[in-house]
Amino acid sequence: MTNRLIPAAWRAESRAMLLLAAPVALGQLLQMGMNLTDMLVIGRLGKEALAAAALAQGLWVFFWFFGMGLATVTAPLLAQAQGEGDTAGQARVLRQGLVLNLLIGLGIVAILGWSELLLLWLGQAPDLAREAGHYLQALRWAIPPLLLMTVCRNLFVTYQKANLSLGFTSGAFVLNLGLDIVLVFGGQIIGLSIIPAFGLIGAGIATAAGCWLMVAAMLIYIVTKAPFRAVWAQGGRWWPDAALWRKMLVLGLPISVTMVMEVGLFAIAGMLMGWLGTDPLAAHQIAILIASVTFMVPWGISQAATVRIAAAVGRGDAEAAAQAGWVAQAMGLVFMGAMALVLWLMPHPFVRQFLDAEAAANVAVLDLAVTYLAIAALFQLFDGMQVIGVASLRGLSDTKVPMFFAIFGYWGVGLTTSYLLGFVAHWKGVGVWIGLATGLAVVAFLMVWRFRALTAGRGRAIPQPI
């Protein structure tokens, strides 16, 4: 019955999308798991440490996603070159993408060196700002390898080898877990302390070390193993290619702004929660982390959608481009619908992983986290729709209009609603979270509407390759 209801072309696209998206999504889950591991370990230091880490991660993710927007643009560029059979073009994009993103990453590292002062300027408590700043002194060094990793992963996905990225990320996750435990709490051999307990900063060192080793392994594989060795062998210059950098920046900056608008909404929501106190901020961090884990699956689907759509554009196949986008949306809605039910019906087992539920001082934090997670369950569908929608438009080389949608939806609607409900209407944390849900819903519908407008009708014109 199911096979009769779903057209054969959709079934074929679903299989291809799933084969590409599954390892990407699992890789993203493991990458997110590195941050999650940090929080689980840090939570054992107490709610104050967890709150400080929440501030640090909010600021760090803001800059990370700005850089990742510029790294992400290599995905459609590599995929379109693949569709055109241009291996030399892929080599050019790969090398220039690595150089540009290394420089961007180092620039972000320099900016985050002033993180404590920035947090104080944003009105955060001095003690929390100081601890968050210490954590960021180490964590900031994870951004350059994460941007380089995004470029490498895009090459793997272009060649339908996303499982390679999953393997490398798995190794980094295991390494990060071990380093987290040793560096945060200290290490002993036969009762002798050989590694001091670094606390928060130890978690940052663990994440940065794992990321650098992961990207080094990826680059060695690309240089030595087929089919990527053939791309690398095409050569190409390392010094800046002005024309290609201009193209990457023209396409990538709108992507960065779009990502920053979304991440910035959540980062500023964290700052607003910081105004409400340590308990709401710690609860907010717990709920955000849990919701972020489920988000990694539609994120993986979105990356597959960009590649599938961009490859179809490279071939000049408008029908396949549209079909890939709608199949991706259907897959995202099914998964996020299921996750919404899980978070709504059984939140307690998840929130209790972050703090000692038996400690009286943690009861209020865990209760607030459950409340926020109920709202997170409601916006699961919107979160999946928006990330797949914007990635589908990216595959069509449409990046500027989604940027304006993001500015309007996330900041014009979402942030305004969070502030008004949280502080004017005095709904506090609940009001802030309702604002998050509202912003996601507006952006989701705008992105889906835009994709439909660009791909509807038999007479639709295929976008020109980038």
Describe the fold and architecture.
- The protein is built from 19 helices and two strands.
- By secondary structure, the chain is mainly alpha-helical.
- It has a two-stranded antiparallel sheet with strand order 1-2.
- Helix 2 packs parallel to helix 9, helix 3 packs antiparallel against helix 12 and helix 12 runs antiparallel to helix 13.
- The longest helix is centred in the middle third of the chain and has 38 residues.
- The mean pLDDT is 84.
Summarize the structure in short.
It contains 19 helices and two strands.
- Structural class comes to mainly alpha
> Mean of the pLDDT scores?
84
Biggest pleated-sheet summary: 2 strands, antiparallel
- Number of helical elements: 19
Topology, number of strands: 2
Reading the helices and strands in chain order gives: HHHHHHHHHEEHHHHHHHHHH
Please give the radius of gyration in angstroms.
22 Å
Termini separation (Å)?
41 Å
What portion of the residues fall into strands of 2 or more residues? Answer: under 5%
Q: Helical residue percent?
A: over 70%
Strand arrangement in the largest pleated sheet: 1-2
What keywords describe this structure?
466 residues, mainly alpha, 82% helix, globular
Describe the SSE topology.
Layout: H1 2-5, H2 8-43, H3 47-72, H4 74-83, H5 87-112, H6 115-121, H7 126-139, H8 143-158, H9 162-185, E1 187-189, E2 192-195, H10 200-224, H11 228-233, H12 242-276, H13 278-315, H14 318-345, H15 348-351, H16 363-378, H17 380-395, H18 400-424, H19 428-455
Antiparallel strand pairs: 1-2
